[in-house]
Amino acid sequence: MQIVDHFGRKINYLRLSVTDRCNLRCDYCMPEKGVTKLQHRDVLTYEQLCTLAEQSVALGIEKIRITGGEPLVRKGIIPFLETLAKIPGLKQLVLTTNGVLLKQMAGALKQAGVQRLNISLDSLKPDIFKKITRRGDLSKVLDGISAAEAVGFPIKLNMVVMRGINDDEIFDFAKLTLDKPVAVRFIEYMPVIKSRDWQKLVVPGDQVLNQLAQRFPFAPIVKGEACGPAREYKIKGAAGSVGVITPLSGHFCGDCNRIRITCEGMMRTCLFSDHEVDLKPVLTTGHDSDVQDLMRSVIKSKPACHGMTETTSSHNPFTMAQIGG
User: Would you say 166 and 123 are in contact if contact means Cβ atoms under 8 Å apart?
Assistant: First the structure.
């Protein structure tokens, strides 16, 4: 089965958040004082999350990405992932993590059936990493990446590029792809919490590519239909790849294949749309067909495009931990 929105986009990718808790406090994700944590009763149970995953696959979802907050901080995550991996028709089960707990959990994640990891890593310098995350220990993340490599995970690193903070590390990240099959994605800073003068932090994706071109020859890579929004490239002779994700300077909304469900059960068809629909009532009172019907109707309401540019944004501020990174 396939589910298509009103603009003819095939929706086959679900980002499913399992928690709003995180063991870091990245300054582009949440305010310095943090956010009010959800009460346990407000977070969907694993059984409810599994129901949503199963009904999503029944609608045509082929890829599920587990997000947070930081998904690895939620107790019982491994058995939950094992259950998801067994859903008939699910082609890809992947997970986004900050890597802090990977050293201890990489092997269990692999055995559970997770196929790939996206690891958020915004600096290779311990002091800058700690400044961005407000509490992070870079060595723990690097150890986690090594553990993930050791058990056979393909490694994808997501770097949010911020002018004057870590944009001098673009070459260092690109060099990680030369000898290992690492995928590095340079992501434009997004005004999630709308901090003051956020526009000054934005480094357009084309500017990143122009910088890389001064040192490395590279060519574009053709990607599959279930892939994310990155424009991907391979440096000549490199084992891995680089890419840019440009939500501000180069809208990819016309090819968007994603929906999101928060750990509270709120369904969004666009990260930067303020419109969301609560799935909890139908989860507790409805049949599987009712869940599918509601999800299908929400997908049909997916907007054509978000309203962000490099200088303006019309959405209400939120934290990525609340919506799902």
Answer: yes
- Convert the pLDDT of each residue in 253-263 to its tens digit: 767 889 999 99
Residues 6+ apart with CB under 8 A from 261: 14, 15, 16, 17, 52, 267, 268, 279, 324
CB count, 10 Å around CB of 29? 25
Question: What CATH number corresponds to the domain at position 293?
Answer: 3.20.20.70
Per the structure, the count of domains in the chain is 1
Cis check: omega of the bond before 228, within 30 degrees of 0 = no
Task: State both tokens at 73.
Answer: 């901080």
Domain that holds residue 175: 13-323
- Calpha distance 164→200 (Å, rounded): 9
* pTM given for the model: 0.91
- Between CA 297 and CA 284, with CA 288 as vertex, the angle to 5 degrees is 95
Residue 110 lies in a domain: yes
Residue 7: helix, strand or coil by DSSP?
Answer: coil
The answer to the question of residue 28 being in a domain is yes
For range 202-213, the mean pLDDT? 94
Chain centre distance of CA 102: 17
151, HSE (Cβ side, Cα atoms, 13 Å): 21
- Helices marked H in the chain: 46-59, 77-85, 102-112, 126-133, 138-150, 170-179, 205-213, 280-285, 288-300, 320-323
Give 202's strand partners.
162
pLDDT in tens, 162-175: 999 999 999 999 99
Tokens coding 96 = 């986004």
Q: 158: which 2 tokens?
A: 């997501």
Helix 288-300 crosses helix 46-59 at what angle (to 10 degrees)?
A: 60
3-state secondary structure 222-275: CCCCCCCCCEEEEECCCCCEEEEECCCCCCCHHHCCEEEECCCCEEECCCCCCC
- Asked whether residue 2 is domain-assigned, the answer is no
Q: Is residue 206 part of a domain?
A: yes
What Rg value do the Cα atoms of the chain yield, rounded?
Answer: 19
Query: Across the chain, which distance is largest between two alpha carbons, in Å?
Result: 59
